[in-house]
Known about the structure:
- Helices cover 9% and strands 29% of the residues.
- With 449 residues, the protein is mainly β.
- It has a domain at 360-385 and 392-447.
- The longest helix has 30 residues, at 398-427.
- The N and C termini lie close together (11 Å).
Amino acid sequence: MFTDGGPGTKVWLCPGTTYRITSTIAFTAADQQLATLGYKSGSERAVLKIDNPALATAIQGDCRRCARVAIRNVIVDGGRAAFGRVREQHAPGLVVLGGNEGQSVRESWITDPRGFTAIHVREGDKLSCKGAVIERNEIGPVGEEYDPAVDGPDPEMSPLGRPLADGISIACRDSVVRDNKIWDCTDAGIVVYCSPGTQVAANRIMTLRRSAMGGILMVDATPFDGDYSGVVVKDNILDAASRAMRVGVGVGLSILSDDIDTILRGGSVISNVLKGMYMGFGIAAAGLKGWTIRDNHSDARHQGKRSPRCFDEPVNPAPTRFLYHAETITESKIQDGFVDSDFAYIVCIDGLEDGTEVHADELDDVVEEAPEAAAPPPPPAAAGAAAGAADTLSTGSDVLDGILHHSQARLLEGIADMGKYIDALKRAEQPPRGAQAHAEAEADPRSLA
């Protein structure tokens, strides 16, 4: 339809309908849009569900002519639970955009990619990507936890394909990643590949049933040669609620390696909040020039145990709120309270909670797993106190159950938002926007192949 329609084509999907796709939906021209009719939310959004063991990318919009293409109000299920990982070293993302200007993903739920990330915004062959907007989405769960017994000594070389995956991977100038709720991304919730001028703001990243290497990572010098000028990571909440988050915000190559020679330039990390019982290092920084790190706060418990994957030298310090290697940081403004230490590959720690069960009273948000044959598992409801109530909502009708879950989620969101507002008054912060409602109902399948 996009090929035949040309620039400006809008493809409307029927609300509440699941479309099983066997080939990639590809944008082909400028200003095209894929959306649920009426821009529905929650369980009324259309579901695009991969139904092909050879397919990893559901939607692709990184063509040379794809300026301002948009994805709105849809659910995209990558099918890793059904088909497993893609056994390629560089498996593609579930939603792939980039190489152009003004592209967007809004108010959608992206889950269970088979490749390395849920949303990939590429820089383009000539670093031409700019002005992408990724906002008000729900992303998760994403990837599988690394298991040396299954994957071998290096997750990158696992015979089953790479287990870990990111929520959002962005390499695009002057972009915005904001107000997204992201959970259970086993690599990192958000990875910023330089992306000069980009703002990452008011996102909430949680570990509920799967551990994560990191919350927000800026640990690459490519593809913009270490240029993070104008990048602002601000007002995000990193919540290690019930599984390990090994580092909340990581800045510099030595987060994932022993490289202290490569320098990342510019950028700011401001007014982010760390919380949860299972946080490793809160903010860790090394190999920087011209950065500002200020007004960040931790209410988390910082813990973790050294694993065999750690290097022998240097010996990393114990997990702490704020860590930096001062010798490798120049012309930067760093808030008080940072511990100065040499370190390398600090994500080599394991959480002390590994193997424990999730308890409702431990969580601010809970994921309720859905049957394998249904739509993807619903996003976290927004009130831990009432988490158990979701298990009782069963009428025998998927449609009615979806309506009940939707209503419950909206009510719980209201309660949670009030609590967040009260907390925000105490901290003088703006609370993040709540998640969209549950998405469980599955109607008659159709094909967009």
